[in-house]
Amino acid sequence: MYNELPNPGFGTFRLEGGTLTQSIHAALGAGYRHIDTAQFYNNEAGVGQAIVSSSVPREEIFLTTKVWFDNLEPATLKASVDESLKKLGSDYVDLLLIHWPSPNDAVPMVEYLSALKEVKQVGKARRVGVSNFTIQQLDEAVGILGQGEILTNQIEVHPFLQNRRLVDHCEQLGIKVTAFMPLAVGKVMQDPTLKLIAEAHDVTPAQIALAWVKQRNMIAIPSSSSSRNIQSNIAAFDLVLSDDEMAEIAKLDRKERIANPDFAPAWDE
Q1: Selected catalytic residue, list 2, 32, 41, 112
Q2: Which string of b and e fits 129-143 if b means at least 16 CB within 10 Å?
Q3: Inside any domain, residue 243
Q4: Which CATH number is 45's domain given?
Q5: Number of structural domains, the chain?
Q6: Is residue 39 part of a domain?
Q7: Containing domain of residue 143, as a range?
């Protein structure tokens, strides 16, 4: 059982079927011990089967899933978690997140976070957290659950969306940041600055982006269906970037948000 989030995690968004199974097995074989899924990904059953059929015991894996915003009404949230656990083939998840805050506060935060807390209290989730929450929403959430209860806020972070105000606020609250889309859906591979830094280290721009996330004290959850990329992604966490290199990457921030659905909250930047 983990008390902290293993870094990196393996993201499973858009992976399914045999590709999902092979990718999870490759990730576990490479040394990943944190697997991230969600109700919305529609692959929890596949994730569960891949874990069961792997050579790594369930208790050595940190498993995260997320409650979709359609399921935030308290009774529905609890039922949806039971369904997720059934699909995952596990009595518990290590981390249960609210995937998105309720659009337009259709379900009051105090209601769905109280339900989330109850799920944790009965042992179905070891830790709880949130995803895509703004500064204001985080403050409200901490007011409801108390300091130290929210393990992480999973948000989009990559060199082109550095989200510094929100990241700094999470750190002030003692909430770990989990960076999703750390490779900006592959866009990091084409950036001249990242290419130059990568050449100096004899690695790929993707590895530089992941090393940058780690060096900013964040968890990264890259996704890949390629065994080679799965290996190189975890190897990136051994890299150390210089202060000058970190400063150069800091200049790449252009507030380029990729995950921005119509139900998203009013972003901080």
Answers
A1: 41
A2: bbbbbbbebbebbbe
A3: no
A4: 3.20.20.100
A5: 1
A6: yes
A7: 10-185+218-224
Number of Cβ atoms within 10 Å of the Cβ of 210: 28
Grade residue 2 by pLDDT with cuts at 50, 70 and 90.
very low
Residue pair 111/71 in contact by the 8 Å Cβ criterion: no
Is 230 inside a domain boundary?
Answer: no
Q: What is the pLDDT of residue 9?
A: 97
Identify whether 92 is a catalytic site residue: no
**Is 269 inside any structural domain?**
no
CA–CA dist 11, 258 (Å, integer): 16
What pLDDT, in 10s, does the model give residues 215-252? 999 999 999 999 999 999 999 999 999 999 999 999 99
Identify residue 15 by its one-letter amino acid code.
L
Please give the DSSP secondary-structure letter assigned to residue 102: P
**pLDDT tens track for 24-45:** 999 999 999 999 999 999 999 9
What CA–CA distance (Å, rounded) separates 246 from 244?
5
The amino acid that residue 154 corresponds to is Q
First to last CA, the chain: 36
